[in-house]
Design the sequence.
């Protein structure tokens, strides 16, 4: 890893994003619009809103960054920029971390805007600090980036890349404890849920919801998500081959 | 002759097809070598092997005495891919500055490269909004930025205006005069005359490895187009001189005829 190359690569990815105004607008507005829907859906049940909105704040960045990254990385592969980059002094880790940091920053902005709206406008109520919610949202976003980098290796076209969303993200969302509490699931479903990283991210958010101070469980869950990020990045690095047929 | 690149008995397979059949050649340092041949002859594959991104079946390539693809070489090499490999959602200047920064070069050198390819006026434009020719020049700027020791250019002048093409060739020779080694592919024969040495490949085999003058002399014609045609026919008529495979086969035959003029 070369800090200078990592820094210029992160800057390059953010600059690409900054030229795409519409994507920025969508990144910032879509979570707000969905939170608004949720607010009016549970108009008379503030506890239900609190429970779901809190989890949504962590799940948005995961889904969106997964999609954005898998398309961005697929473009690097199909337009030849990846091959070109691999003939330069850039290391694979510089590129992968560059994506992680750049989209992590974008996710932090997104999470900050969505949380601000949720707390101030819609009166979201959590025992723990909103800062912890944002922190968990950013870690989730980086998880989305890491899985997106990995999945892009298995797609040849953008059509294929978007199909990985239902494969990778939907089961995690269904089994994360949002719809059915994890301990009330059939044993084998709970076992699957136990090995999916998003389950821990959601548990961490629920901890922030009911405890004033960060709990040991929350930190353990965050560490598990960070571990999943590392595993996904290592596997993604293995899919980046300098030499191809 | 100081050697920059030494290719020995290179065999490359892509899919089930053998693209290069035991190709050997040397490329001198500080010169412009033209790599010519019809499309599908293996030019791009050879270039990819030299920059170290192609899986090689057998044989060896040494670049400045190191195996092709060595990490230390990546700092000294510029590579233009055949399809422009620049970011469409960045401006020309941002692209050049990014690639310059990867090599530890500053913004001034990037801006110089942009000017060298005649894109000074369009420097602030997003690459995605450029014409095809401009886009490939933006990619070229990223390959020559900071004057690398080895510059591998895959069809750099396709679709360019003749005046600009002339300027680009002058720039290539200037780089060579300053010690850089350039390998430039083309399928246009009129560009062959601008090179100091020529490699002609056809169907993955080397047909000529010589100076343009020697190629003309050995074929007995002043027209390079015609000269290549004659070399190809001569090769087809005497398959024994160039058996399909085998470690003993090399480019020696055409080189010798060239030097015995």
Sequence:
């Amino acid at each position: 890893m070369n800090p200078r190359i990592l820094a210029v690569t992160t800057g390059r990815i953010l600059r690409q994003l900054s030229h795409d105004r519409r994507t920025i607008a969508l990144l910032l507005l879509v979570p707000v619009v969905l939170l608004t829907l949720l607010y009016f859906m549970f108009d008379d049940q503030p506890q239900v809103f609190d429970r779901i909105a809190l989890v949504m704040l962590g799940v948005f960045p995961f889904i969106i960054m997964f999609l954005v990254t898998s398309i961005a990385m697929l473009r690097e592969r199909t337009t030849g920029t990846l091959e070109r980059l691999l003939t330069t002094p850039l290391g694979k880790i510089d590129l992968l971390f560059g994506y992680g940091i750049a989209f992590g920053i974008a996710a932090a902005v997104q999470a900050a805007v969505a949380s601000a709206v949720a707390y101030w406008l819609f009166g979201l109520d959590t025992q723990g600090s909103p800062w912890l919610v944002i922190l968990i949202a950013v870690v989730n976003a980086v998880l989305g980036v890491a899985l997106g980098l990995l999945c892009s290796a298995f797609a040849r076209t953008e059509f294929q890349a978007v199909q990985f969303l239902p494969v990778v993200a939907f089961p995690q969302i269904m089994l994360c404890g949002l719809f059915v509490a994890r301990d009330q699931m059939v044993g084998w479903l709970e076992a699957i849920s136990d090995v999916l990283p998003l389950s821990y991210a959601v548990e961490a958010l629920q901890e922030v919801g009911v405890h004033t101070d960060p709990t040991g469980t929350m930190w353990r869950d965050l560490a598990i998500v960070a571990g999943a990020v590392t595993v996904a990045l290592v596997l993604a690095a293995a899919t980046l081959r300098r030499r191809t047929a | 002759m100081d050697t920059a690149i030494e290719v020995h008995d290179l065999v490359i397979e892509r899919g089930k097809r053998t693209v290069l059949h035991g190709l050997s050649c040397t490329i001198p340092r500080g010169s412009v070598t033209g790599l010519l041949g019809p499309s599908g002859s293996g030019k791009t594959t050879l270039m990819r092997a030299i920059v170290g991104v192609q899986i090689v079946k057998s044989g060896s390539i040494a670049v400045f005495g190191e195996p092709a693809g060595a990490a230390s070489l990546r700092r000294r090499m510029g590579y233009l891919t055949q399809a422009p490999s620049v970011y469409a959602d960045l401006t020309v200047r941002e692209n050049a500055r990014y690639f310059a920064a990867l090599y530890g070069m500053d913004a001034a050198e990037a801006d110089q490269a942009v000017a060298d390819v005649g894109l000074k006026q369009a420097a602030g434009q997003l690459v995605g909004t450029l014409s095809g020719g401009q886009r490939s020049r933006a990619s070229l700027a990223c390959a020559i930025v900071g004057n690398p020791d080895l510059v591998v250019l895959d069809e750099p002048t396709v679709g360019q205006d003749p005046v600009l093409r002339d300027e680009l060739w002058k720039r290539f020779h200037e780089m060579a005069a300053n010690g850089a080694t350039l390998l430039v592919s083309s399928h246009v024969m009129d560009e062959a005359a601008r090179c100091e040495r020529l490699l002609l490949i056809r169907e993955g085999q080397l047909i000529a490895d010589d100076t343009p003058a020697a190629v003309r002399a050995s074929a007995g014609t002043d027209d390079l187009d015609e000269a290549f045609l004659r070399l190809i026919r001569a090769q087809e008529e005497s398959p024994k001189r160039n058996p399909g495979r085998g470690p003993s086969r090399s480019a020696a035959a055409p080189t010798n005829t060239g030097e015995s003029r």
User: Anything to note?
Assistant: Chain B has eight helices and ten strands. The interface with chain A takes residues 13-15, 51-56, 69, 71, 74-75, 77, 79, 81, 83-91, 94, 98-99, 101-104, 126, 142 of chain B (CB under 8 Å).
